[in-house]
Each structure stands twice: as C-alpha cells, then as structure tokens.
Amino acid sequence: MALVRERRQLNLRLPLPPISDRRFSVSSSVTTTTVAATSGCNGISAGDLEKLNVLGCGNGGIVYKVSHKTTSEIYALKTVNGDMDPIFTRQLMREMEILRRTDSPYVVKCHGIFEKPVVGEVSILMEYMDGGTLESLRGGVTEQKLAGFAKQILKGLSYLHALKIVHRDIKPANLLLNSRNEVKIADFGVSKILVRSLDSCNSYVGTCAYMSPERFDSESSGGSSDIYAGDIWSFGLMMLELLVGHFPLLPPGQRPDWATLMCAVCFGEPPRAPEGCSEEFRSFVECCLRKDSSKRWTASQLLAHPFLREDL
C-alpha cells in the first residue's frame, strides 16, 4: 500500500488499509497451521480420521488434532466451513496452490485435502507439530539455540525463494516446532508465486508489525526493491524478538497501532541487538534489518554468516 505523498511530514491521518487486510498484532494466540497440499495423498480418506481435540481456531477455520483409526498416526486437520469471507477464500485457494508445489523438510508437510462441495467445507490434513510455535519461546532462547532455528528457517526461505514464492508473513506464530527441535514454515495464506520477473510483492498484506519499510511504503523504493527482501526483514525482527523477549521496534509493553508501527519502520532507525550479545549475532541482525532492501542479505547469504558457524 502506498502511503499518501505527505508522509514525509509525518501526517498520521493516513488512509488505513481495508480491515480484512490488517493484522496489527505482534503476537497471536491462535496457531494457524498450514502446509503443502496434495489431494488424496498416501491413500488417507476423511473417514480414516478420528478427531481428538481442538488445537486452535481463527480466520474461519478450526485446527484439530486427529488420529488415523488404523495406524494411530497423529496429524493436524485444518477445516474451513461454509460461507467464508471472499478474501479469506482467495487466501485459502492461494495457500493450497502454493503448498501443492512444495516438498521440503523445512515446510510443514500436507498429507491430503478433503472437500465437501455441498456444504462448502475444505479440510487440509497436515503433519502434526507437537511443540507449538516459536512465539511461546520469546525471551527464553539462547544465541546457540537461535542459530539452530535460524539455519532451518533460512533453508526453508531459500527453498521457497528459489521456487519464486514469497511468504510475506514471517513471524514467530507462523514458525512451528516439534519435540525434535525441528522448525518448519507454515501459513501461506498471503504468500505469492511470482509469475513474471517484474512482479511486485510490496502490497499491504500480512502482519504489519513485521512488514519491511518498502512494504509499508512501496513508493520509497521506486518499485526497484528486492522482491524477496521483505521476508528477510521479518525474519530478522523475529530473531531479535526471540532473544530479547519483546517486539524490538517498540518499548516493552507498548501496544502497537498502525500509525506507530509505520513511523517506527519507515522513519526510525532499525533495531539493533542489545549490549551483551555476541558480535556475530549483532552483525547477523544488522544484515537482515537494512532499510535499503537491495542491501539486505539474501537467505542463501545469511546461511554462510559467521553467526551460524557450527562451533559458535
């Protein structure tokens, strides 16, 4: 979304994005689990599954913990019903299309899609991640553990970017964890497949707290920003948040709003790692949070950063 041309004078009476496109929250209590999709995969049918309990709900859908009646294998089943908002319907279709194309150990796996056209219900059967989201770990993660998480997330982003897929909503709530300390990327509802080399990804979708400067204000980049760099900005903010325990662009406890976030991202200095952190981590965060998107490191470059050395 392009801001009004008077934005440099800090005119806060800005045109807000449509309500349906706004996600203000820095954190979310709902785990929306989304994964790659292939209809009828592994020969599993909806009748083979038994619902055990609800894992989360939101955006018109419910995520259940389910068990295969024969094998006792545990899965997550995301079910969306009936009269969905048209915008959410498009997001669901986009998510399914993107995830049909993915097959990576760093993206949550889908085992099937079940549709009931008469009632308008769609269910996506997914890998069960028993550790919740990275959101629950904020402030309790050491640099060494962060490096392990970062390697996996960056490998996932490098894979997606190689497929010309931009996630556009990287944040702790969309990174799922299991008991083996594996981290996988989820929730592709606002992601985009780039069809042409000139496609832009600076539209106003996703969670504004984690949006990069060029996505808040696409005019500032002159349309020449790196199309994948927004994911790297979001990733860098998330890494810093997991270490310090609060959203790094605002003082601890301050509730975010759209105008405050816009000013912090577009006009403020990028946040830096606090004193006491290693020089490697401070450099790693700085490489992610450069305001000029063309100077941000790519996922592949970050994988070679000294912070991710095995002996750190």
UniProtKB/TrEMBL annotation:
Extract the PROSITE patterns matched here: PROTEIN_KINASE_ATP, PROTEIN_KINASE_DOM, PROTEIN_KINASE_ST
Whether Transferase counts among this entry's keywords is: yes
Q: Write the record's keywords in alphabetical order, separated by commas.
A: ATP-binding, Kinase, Nucleotide-binding, Phosphoprotein, Serine/threonine-protein kinase, Transferase
The Swiss-Prot or TrEMBL record annotates one GO molecular function as:
ATP binding
Q: Which InterPro entries match?
A: Kinase-like_dom_sf, Prot_kinase_dom, Protein_kinase_ATP_BS, Ser/Thr_kinase_AS
Query: What reactions does this protein catalyze?
Result: L-tyrosyl-[protein] + ATP = O-phospho-L-tyrosyl-[protein] + ADP + H(+); L-seryl-[protein] + ATP = O-phospho-L-seryl-[protein] + ADP + H(+); L-threonyl-[protein] + ATP = O-phospho-L-threonyl-[protein] + ADP + H(+)
Q: Give the Enzyme Commission number.
A: 2.7.12.2
| Top-level EC class as recorded in UniProt | transferase
CDD domains per record? PKc_MAPKK_plant_like
Positions the record marks as coiled coil are: none
**Domain Protein kinase as annotated: residue spans:** 49-308
GO terms, biological process? camalexin biosynthetic process; ethylene biosynthetic process; ethylene-activated signaling pathway; leaf senescence; pollen-pistil interaction; positive regulation of DNA-templated transcription; response to fungus; response to salt stress
Q: Which Gene3D superfamilies does this entry report, sorted A to Z?
A: Phosphorylase Kinase, domain 1, Transferase(Phosphotransferase) domain 1
Q: Where does ATP bind?
A: K78
Similarity field: Belongs to the protein kinase superfamily. STE Ser/Thr protein kinase family. MAP kinase kinase subfamily.
Protein name, entry field: mitogen-activated protein kinase kinase
Which species is the source of this protein?
Arabidopsis lyrata subsp. lyrata (Lyre-leaved rock-cress)
